[in-house]
Amino acid sequence: MSHCAYCTQRKGKRPCPALAGLICSQCCGEHRIVRVSCPADCVYLESGSDYQQKRLAVQFMPLRREFYRELTELGGEKSVALFNLVEVVTFGYFQRRHDGQDAEVVAALQALRRTLSPLHVPAAPMPVFAEYLGKEYDTFKKQNPEQIADISAAPEILDRAISFVSRFSGTGFQSQRFLGGLIGYVRAYHPDIAEHLTKQREPGHIILPGQQFMPPPEPEAHTHGPGCHHH
């Protein structure tokens, strides 16, 4: 029996070009990209990522719905708009990348929070995504100054956003759980927005879908009756 080239315990079933041998499906699913340097043309890379994203999307949706409810109670539509923008920018930036990590999102949120804090102190050069998110916020704020939270409310919203992302991400080293959940959610429940953002190329022209980006409503309970067609 050919053992997995990664764990050396289970049976290897999939050819792994990165390990020059066979890998078991469990190691392939858990360690691709994060610990195994998968080439972009690996036949298992895209299909495995799609499966993980669909699975995470189901878990992500109710938690996201609850977080949006929390934001609405905190600061109304402007609070929702700020996190909505974060999600749109994050999806657009990471949806084609297999090596993106949740830590990049958290670092970007922390950097934006520092920038919008009344006690802002210049820090070291920002990571690439942090700089990108900051520019998209500035662009949208200039174009729609009355629609999104500003310096007076944004720090608290971003603190809660950091907590939300970190909770969903978990404690795994180099976790991609939040990114997988967000990308899977947008693709599964808002395919029109996913398609638009996939085609979008120019930075600084981010759409802000607002309430249409919210989860679909839960189906109403059905009662069988005389006019029911289920008989």
Beta-strand content: under 5%
Task: Give the H and E element order.
Answer: EEHHHHHHH
Average of per-residue pLDDT values? 84
Biggest sheet descriptor: 2 strands, antiparallel
Secondary structure: number of strands = 2
Physical arrangement of strands within the biggest beta sheet: 1-2
What's the multimeric state? single chain
Low-confidence stretches: none
Helix content: 55-70%
SS-based class? mainly alpha
**What's the end-to-end separation, in Å?**
55 Å
What is the molecular shape? elongated
Tally of helical runs: 7
Number of domains: 2
CA-based gyration radius: 21 Å
Q: What does this protein look like?
A:
With 231 residues, the protein is an all-alpha fold. It has 2 domains: 1-39; 53-210, no CATH class. The chain contains 7 helices and 2 strands, in the order ββααααααα. The chain has a two-stranded antiparallel ribbon with strand order 1-2. A hairpin with a 4-residue loop joins β1 (14-16) and β2. α2 packs across α4, α2 packs antiparallel against α5 and α3 (102-116) runs antiparallel to α5. The longest helix is centred in the first third of the chain and has 52 residues, at 43-94. It is elongated, with a radius of gyration of 21 Å. The mean pLDDT is 84.
